[in-house]
Predict the 3D structure of the following.
Amino acid sequence: MPNNSDDAPAQAAFKIIVAGGFGVGKTTLVGSVSEIRPLTTEERLTTAGIGVDDLDGIEDKTDTTVAMDFGRITLPEAGVVVYLFGTPGQDRFWFVWDALLEGAAGAIVLVDTRHLGRSFPAVDFFENRRLPFVVGVNAFDGHQPYSAEQIRGALRMSDPQTPIIELDARSRTSSRDALIALMDHLIDRARPVHA
Amino acid sequence: MTSRGRGRRPRLYAATGGRSSTARTSVLTMDTLITAAGDDQGLPSEWRAVLDLCRPPRALAVAELAARMGWRLTPMTRLLGVLLERGLIHHRLPLSPAETCNVVLLTRIRECLAKQL
């Protein structure tokens, strides 16, 4: 019954996922652009055999509570409210959280070049799900030593069109530019002739 | 993390008046926007607390209502399913896949982000 109410809210949500490994600055980025202080909501997931050590004979199915940080940006002139959802730090849990991905327009995958491997699962996951994303290299001290091509290789990114940008998640303008880079990427992909 | 939510997470039974699920619950994704509707006289205080958070013209996502009440998503979604059935809320679904691939709309969102942030 996918109907809206007759007197439905004037705006609709536009969902963007902010992913990346633990401690990479997801909540910082959300907070930099959000009109509200980031909020946290929780869900209980049943994870069968995920990240659970095999202990002989013990049922390897477990309930886990995942917490998700999010913020919002209301854009009245566009008739949308952008909701930015930061994935929980433990990748192995949010991968089973289908509702988090459902309806998402795109994603920003944050990368810390000191811990590149931590963001590989997110890249791999979005490529498999065909969710468009940009990679945002969070340059904590203003610079980072790798070229875009080195990062593309290290993250084993298969789509050469996926943008890689540098950003400082603490900066509002820099985080805004990352959002705009994602929008540009979504617009490129939505155009009928897509090179 | 909302501290006021700690320790007052409702039992689902109490929050939904004993109804654990409704057919309409599945409509309400975490990013569906909700706004209060109608008269809430005589409703349980927790229901009214939820409705007070989204009085028009305010509309909040299901996830935001859950966060502000300090509840998990599932019990909030189920309560909202009951409120929807009783005509106590209006809802607006998130943009559809067709809309999120609409160049005109995407361009407008981009322009508004650039202007507003």
About this structure: The domain at 12-37+67-190 of chain A is CATH 3.40.50.300 (Rossmann fold). Chain A touches chain B through 54 residues (CB under 8 Å). The beta strands of chain A are 12-20, 39-48, 61-75, 80-86, 106-111, 133-138, 164-167. Chain A has one domain: 12-37+67-190.
